């Protein structure tokens, strides 16, 4: 496997400094050490002589001393795996420069100079997919966060903003399309049959937003007129053959452009907006100015090959990257500790956009499920960090659910406290005040304070403290005064490096329901600011039912258990759809936690299941619900979320109890599930909400039937598979069959593979369905798939499709033998030399040993130690393994 790990080759150097230096020992970067850059680069002209295995890069920098910084006579330029091919200063070839590790140091006498540096890079050997790399014969870049330094030497930090002029030339047959940021300014043919193009980006930007793409690509084109009348040419470039699957992405882009004008008053600012889809990509997409580069996964869709979930994800990610044009590009980050400034805010913006495009409550439920599934575990584990971290070794490790999703929740709380109109005044002020600047989270908070008229003094703790606050709520009814006292207590748990926490301001949308009428007396926004605080409500002659954190107004855990009768009441009556969902979740959580911890005897277990069954039956029969929402209400809480509720994680018991409940519901509501499956199967395909809801429920019915009546589930899944006219139905049916031990499983898997051979995104699904399956042989299947001819370690989508699905498969990953842990550790060790940042993403599942029962905890630690002992590990993986072992 190490054959594939060849790093980008440095070029021949004209100076003695070419000797390869060993990688520098990991250094810790600290937020409070920020200093402004000593030198600025107002202009850069880049010239690329393109070739797959040897691209020559000539970089012309105008450099000027920064009057606002401590003067330094030495210019330090970041590099990574580069050597200087030639260097000149003010027109003179020079060799009086030196290397410090991978950085280039140049002593400079004056206040401004013109610097020309040549480097040569090997894109084909760049398996890390950071910097300039080759993907399926095309060339493309990924520079965030620190990839630009793998192309040329540069002050590769987000607070150095430059105007970019890019020229590239290359073989016309291999690279017919030549793209970069900004506007195309010229193009032409060279005498030798090659061609060239020049692009100019008028908007100063940091190096992480630079992009270049060259390859054989076809475009889906459209146009958009901004509200002030600018005509923008839109293009989505894909490999020939894929252009028929770009219409949904184009519709999503146009909808995003309209939405950002309406919702935030933000207009697009160039004549061209280009998107390119590439199949080898570490992340989901990248917001390079005017030239977004996307993972194909978030562009390509048609009903036959993409699920409804894929359609939603595409709309969300296209929106997200587009919204970055303002929240990220026009106003960028001063340093990488401020990452949530652009990511948290942009996630909030894409969530708001998607909510408006579809069902707001369903979107809210989905977002909270992601937060609880990914961010809550991060916040309670060894990798916990505040949304604005204080230190890092490798910034790639901080593109986390905390920075992104909790970051969005923190800004969402500002919207809740301010109200939408005042919040908009705050964001208008933020964009006005900081346009063209590299800003900080503090700048954002201040603008919201000034614009929205909020005092966020204490609220700043949300940026400083890690950990999910836990709230206890106690409502006491006073019959004499017909009032209720609600006492709220908060604790913020200790996290690595933060043993003691201060109380946070927590906005909790709250309502108290009158049991007799089924109504509340108006919702209130309670702001809990102290460790303990009481609120009084008048006008209740009987004890009310408490509905708290409605709409999930704060990213906290409500620790107090409500009586089952109250949860059943809220599941039926709450007029806040999220609260209704939450009551259903809590009903199941409380039952399963009690079952797993041995608190239920046989009759209590049966009683609990009956209560849940009755709530399910009521939801299935409720004609006031739409099917998308009904689908949410009948999803059981995931095993990861359930484990969060336990003091000691017992994965086998959680799995067994959850499956037993599913089987009980499958059996006792068998008639209802069959009727539901029949009803939904009759709804014809369309992208309308009703049809999507039907598809969602169709597969959910199969899930419960598979647990309760496998023979019936096989019959129905096979029929659904054979009749499928869309990927949502086909995938749902295949998932069901995959989990069962029946010859229909192999037949359907073989058919699916043959039917979609060559379509990488669909073959990814084929891998994921098997690795993530409930099938008791999932470990065996995963090991076999790792040797399948379609498996490759060099394509991140394929690696994730197999191994992320496996790591998220609770029963297979947590096999008592430790084999699941070993499989992931082996993967990390094998993948690390090829793609360190992707390898490091697999560490966190192994890091959750502290709360695990002792047998598995020991096995997990042993695997982490085995990884740590591997020589030559990347900085990415080293940091994650060290933090995970420290606990
Ligand atoms: N800003 C990019 C993330 C790039 C990841 C680099 N390791 C995608 C996004 O959040 O929009
Ligand atoms: Zn983003």
| Biggest sheet statistics | 8 strands, mixed
Give the termini distance in whole angstroms: 31 Å
Q: What name goes with the CATH superfamily of the domain at 331-464?
A: Neutral Protease Domain 2
Q: What is the CATH third-level topology name of the domain at 331-464?
A: Neutral Protease, domain 2
Quickly give the structural class.
alpha+beta
The proportion of residues in beta strands is 15-25%
- How large, in whole angstroms, is the Cα Rg? 28 Å
Figure out the total of helices: 28
Helix content: 40-55%
CATH class placement of the domain at 331-464: Mainly Alpha
What's the CATH architecture name of the domain at 331-464?
Orthogonal Bundle
Number of strands: 32
Shape label: globular
Query: Which molecules are bound in this entry?
Result: (3S)-3,7-diaminoheptanoic acid, zinc ion
Characterize the structure shown.
- Among the domains are: 134 residues, Neutral Protease, domain 2 (Orthogonal Bundle), CATH 1.10.390; 92 residues, Aminopeptidase N, middle-beta domain (Immunoglobulin-like, Sandwich), CATH 2.60.40; 108 residues, no CATH class; 87 residues; 131 residues, Peptidase M1, alanyl aminopeptidase, C-terminal domain (Zincin-like fold, Alpha Horseshoe).
- The chain has 28 helices and 32 strands.
- It has 887 residues and is α+β, with helices and mostly antiparallel strands.
- (3S)-3,7-diaminoheptanoic acid binds next to strand 20 and helix 2.
